Amino acid sequence: MTWHPIKTFSAKQQHISEKCLIFREQIVLMTEELILQGCRKNDAAAQQVLYQKYSPKMLSVCYRYAKSREDAEDMLQEGFVKVFTQINRYEHRGSLEGWILRIIVHTCINHLKKNKKFNDVVDLAYAGNLIIREDNIPGIVQAKQIVECIRSLPIGYRTVLNLYAIEGYSHKEIGAMLDIEESTSRSQYTRAKNMLEEILAKKGIIQPKEEKRVWLRPVNQY
């Protein structure tokens, strides 16, 4: 019988492990104010803590707008560069996460605007009378299969849908962000929600309902 010695960690591996443990403790122990103070001084450790704390959620936001995982990661990196360079502009009006989210969303929009036109429309057959299970829209839109359905929409449709139904922007604000008319934003959203409902119905996520149609509404209006 061959004897196999128990694997032991090298001094270098133990050192790396200890550094990871210390870093995880930093994330827990550093208050938001301490993180902000460090970031304002361009402290790399504080920037890393801020990034680790918020990047997973912000990547999911980028993913809803992006064509691919690679594009989403590019949007995320570009967005956090702006976060760190503009951190002194944060004035505690609202949550830090909300402030970061606005920067990330605008970064996504600017990324898309470089190569796309948002006032292009596609003729669609309107979906039938459908009802969204919208008792908990925030929970629904986080589901991976729903996100994939949103990402399958044409770029203009999914962008307006994301901004209006999920981020909570008004059609007037969306028009200004995308350089389109307010009426164009409204029509894009109407087409987007019909197309999305048709996709969701085919996947069995929503059910037809003859007597009433319930639309996706902005999350922030609940």
Sum up the structure in keywords.
single chain; 222 residues; mainly alpha; Rna Polymerase Sigma Factor, Chain: A; Arc Repressor Mutant, subunit A; two-stranded antiparallel ribbon; 10 helices; elongated
Structure description:
- This protein has 222 residues and is mainly alpha-helical.
- The protein has two domains: 12-113, Orthogonal Bundle (Rna Polymerase Sigma Factor, Chain: A), CATH 1.10.1740.10; 130-221, Winged helix-like DNA-binding domain superfamily/Winged helix DNA-binding domain (Arc Repressor Mutant, subunit A, Orthogonal Bundle), CATH 1.10.10.
- It contains ten helices and two strands.
- Helix 3 (44-65) crosses helix 4 (69-85), helix 8 (155-166) crosses helix 10 (182-202) and helix 9 (171-178) packs across helix 10 (182-202).
- The longest helix has 22 residues, at 44-65.
State the secondary-structure class: mainly alpha
Number of strands: 2
Q: What percentage of residues falls in helices of 4 or more residues?
A: 55-70%
What would you give as the CATH superfamily of the largest domain?
A: RNA polymerase sigma factor, region 2, helix turn helix motif
What CATH calls the topology of the largest domain is: Rna Polymerase Sigma Factor, Chain: A
Largest sheet: 2 strands, antiparallel
* CA-atom Rg in angstroms: 22 Å
Shape: elongated
Main-sheet strand order equals 1-2
End-to-end distance: 68 Å
The first-level CATH class name of the largest domain: Mainly Alpha
- Please trace the helix and strand order, writing H or E for each element: HHHHHEHHHHHE
- What proportion strand? under 5%
Q: Mean pLDDT, as a whole number? A: 76
Number of domains: 2
Q: Supply the number of helical segments.
A: 10
Which stretches are poorly predicted, pLDDT < 50 over at least 5 residues? 1-9, 121-140
